[in-house]
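Workshop exercise sheet. Pairs work together: one partner reads the sequence aloud, the other fills in the structure field after running the prediction. Swap roles for the next sheet.
Pair: D.N. / O.F.
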Amino acid sequence: MRIKGFGGIFLRSKDIDALKNWYKETLGISMGDWNGTVIKPDADNETIFSFFNEESDYFPEEQSVMLNFQVEEIEAWMEHFNRIGIPLLKEPEKSEFGTFIWISDPEGR
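Structure field:
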């Protein structure tokens, strides 16, 4: 079992346009019309960096951030979480982008 990297970093924003401008001016990160960008450090590793409105239901509204980790052996991770008492917040979701599971840290992220 190993974490390979981040699959996504998602931030809620009160003012997406202002935040996009800050990241462009400060770090040179340009965001697309979908309020995100793909950071690709290696051929087999890419990270989605994206902003969401405060009202978005993509992840719970009380969360200001959501992190997606790319992992090897997702089934082993699910067994590990079960063994140590970390519940899955919903059933695994399979899509063309991979299999996703959700857990929460002790502070609700």
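Discussion prompt: The chain has two helices and six strands. What would you look at next?
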